[in-house]
Design goal:
Elements lengths: L20 H8 L3 E5 L2 E4 L1 H20 L3 E2 L5 E3 H7 L10 E4 L5 E4 L4 H11 L8 E10 L14 E11 L2 H21 L4 E5 L11 E7 L5 E6 L5 E3 L14 H4 L9 E4 L6 H8 L6 E9 L2 E8 L6 H7 L5 E3 L2 H8 L15 E4 H4 L4 E4 L5 E6 L1 H4 L4 E3 L18 E16 L1 H5 L3 E3 L5 E3 L1 E8 H11 L1 E2 L2 E2 L10 E5 L5 H16 L4 E3 L6 H11 L3 E5 L7 E6 L5 E5 H8 L5
Parallel strand pairs: 3-7, 14-18, 15-17, 17-20, 27-28, 27-29
Antiparallel strand pairs: 1-2, 4-6, 5-6, 7-8, 8-24, 9-10, 10-21, 11-12, 11-21, 13-19, 14-15, 14-16, 18-19, 21-24, 22-23, 25-26, 29-30, 30-31
Length: 573
């Protein structure tokens, strides 16, 4: 490809709206352009990379025995209502009506559609197992699109769905996809971890793992053991070495010791303010938060130095929606303004974290303005509350698997997710097959997603420097960048054309910079677009000597023509 004919509008400065490094480089290198918030056009370089990512995904899906299909992006709302997700999915679901006033959605995912397809086409256990996948545009009405392709409203996704006759079959399908994902992300050059995760709105009855590309810009926090392979998303992360609940005997020896003490605490509302006022650590306090759980108030009680994990609360209560209650609701159920809520005397369900029950005593809100209660004995005063793990794991917590390791925290970009769905969708949509005994059984399902366009961004978060992109060779738009210093020098141009032709015949993708630009401009653009190997043709062209620069390492070497061609057709760079 001649660069003079390539639509590659580079920018010298990063646009002000681009916060993430990947977003900046994609705009500056001319890979994408924004049409609207969270909606992008892929220019030629970006599209070439995207196609290579798609090809890697296709090869590994095919190798795992999956078959490619293509499903409609526009889905009848009836399917979503049948599965029960039409209201549950929330405002991210893009909804529309046709001219006949029929409701449709623009698919953010395709569990309903694939289940509908298979229930109409597969009727016998002899047709199982079956795994189908597609690579297709998805739509989610993100409230705040940001970071370029990392959080958009329109994006490219690979979604696969497995159908098995039993749980053993699902385990095999899940394992096959799990291993394929490891191969895909390794081939793309990512530094990643597979982590235990929550199923979220997809739901399901079995395990689920997220694949996280480690990057500071990542919106997810993952807990990783420093001694074993345990890793989990913060919303799912457990911790070992949990404190044992204080015994009733150690908590109180007589009724007098169980008496509550009222403390006047005017305008002292936060844990930080309480710590200063009482000259105690945050761990000495008991924090009560009021949540709206499917519209009903629930109190969650954690230690003052801990944070509530809303996903754990949601799973404990099998709820669809969990969010902090508004101020009006909180004041109505506690009788006190914000900052003075406490667990004693509440007439709503109460969840108390294990770490609170391990406290012999603590200080909590009094459900009265400007007052807190001291000498709160959780084992005595909160004996009717539902106990469990309702807090976020923290750095330094014991690993829940090996117990020897400690948890450390990293930021991550979710690039893939695998789920064991079980019968969630097959039962809801009445998708069944006949088993060997002639009985109807619901399919046992799994689903497996990869954000292909997000993967492009994740790679750039890990593979760039101050000068621009550093593409892994497997997904680079071109493998070799041939740069003649002067297009007016016929010897240089002839040699550039010869090298380009020889490499192209050998199956190497080459971009030749035939623009009439200064050498400095060419070299800056070359570093910016990040092609793995640059061959510079300069003053020694007549002698058949060229300069090779490896983008990843910055190594520069002078080689003869044939030696340079051998190097450029290899995989060392």
């Amino acid at each position: 490809m001649r660069q003079s004919q390539l639509l590659m509008p580079t920018l010298r400065e990063s646009p002000s709206e681009a916060e993430a490094a990947s977003h900046q480089w994609m705009l500056r290198a001319g890979l994408i352009r924004q049409l609207a918030a969270g909606i992008y056009t892929y220019l030629p370089l970006g599209r070439r990379v995207l196609r290579k990512l798609e090809q890697i995904v296709r090869e590994e899906m095919d190798l795992a025995g999956a078959q490619e299909v293509l499903m409609p992006a526009m889905q009848p709302a009836e399917l979503w209502k049948e599965s029960g997700r039409y209201e549950v999915y929330g405002p991210e679901l893009m909804r529309l009506r046709d001219r006949h006033d029929r409701e449709f959605t623009l698919g953010p995912t395709h569990e309903e559609v694939i289940t509908s397809l298979v229930r109409g086409e597969v009727s016998s256990y002899r047709q199982l197992p079956l795994t189908l996948y597609q690579i297709q545009t998805k739509f989610r009405d993100e409230k705040r699109p940001r970071y370029g392709l990392l959080r958009g409203r329109e994006f490219l996704m690979k979604d696969a769905y497995s159908f098995d006759a039993d749980w053993e079959g699902l385990h095999r399908s899940y394992t096959s996809m799990y291993e394929a994902y490891h191969r895909i992300f390794t081939r793309c050059g990512l530094y990643f971890r597979s982590v235990e995760a929550d199923a979220g709105s997809i739901g399901g009855e079995g395990g689920t793992h997220e694949f996280m590309a480690l990057a500071d810009i990542g919106e997810d926090t993952i807990a990783v053991c420093d001694s074993c392979s345990y890793a989990a998303n913060l919303e799912k992360a457990e911790y070992g070495g949990k404190e044992q609940a204080a015994s009733e005997e150690s908590s109180v020896r007589d009724e007098h010791e169980a008496e509550l003490v009222r403390h006047h605490t005017p305008n002292i509302k936060t844990i930080e303010q309480l710590s200063q006022a009482f000259e105690l650590e945050a761990a000495a306090f008991i924090k009560t938060l009021i949540y709206a759980v499917d519209g009903k108030p629930v109190a969650v009680v954690v230690r003052g130095d801990h944070e509530v994990n809303e996903i754990k609360v949601k799973n404990k209560l099998s709820a669809a929606h969990v969010e902090l209650a508004d101020q009006t609701t909180a004041e109505r159920v506690t009788g006190a303004p914000t900052g003075f809520a406490g667990p004693i005397g509440l007439q709503i369900p109460i969840l108390v974290d294990d770490a609170v029950l391990a406290m012999e005593s603590g200080i909590a809100g009094a459900n009265e303005a400007d007052y807190h209660l001291g000498n709160v004995k959780p084992l005595i005063h909160l004996s009717q509350a539902a106990a469990g793990d309702f807090r976020n794991a923290e750095a330094g917590d014991h690993c829940p698997r090996c117990e020897e390791g400690r948890l450390a925290f990293h930021r991550g970009i979710e690039v893939g997710h695998v789920f064991k769905l079980g019968t969630k969708y097959s039962e809801a949509l009445h998708a069944t097959y006949l088993n060997a005994s002639g009985r109807e059984q619901p399919f046992i399902m799994g689903c497996y997603g990869i954000g292909v366009s997000r993967l492009l961004s994740a790679v750039l978060e890990q593979h760039s420097d101050n000068n621009g992109i550093i593409w892994p060779r497997a997904i680079a738009p071109y493998q070799v960048h041939v740069v003649p210093v002067s297009v007016k020098d016929t010897v240089q141009m002839d040699l550039a054309a010869h090298i380009t032709s020889r490499l192209s015949e050998a199956g190497v993708e080459v971009l030749m910079d035939d623009r009439d630009e200064r050498p400095g401009v060419k070299f800056k653009d070359s570093d910016l677009i990040g092609i793995p190997l640059r061959i510079v043709i300069g003053k020694q062209a007549a002698e058949g000597i060229v300069e090779l620069k490896t983008r990843k390492t910055g190594e520069v070497q002078q080689l003869g023509l044939e030696e340079a061609l051998v190097f450029a057709t290899g995989a060392e760079y």
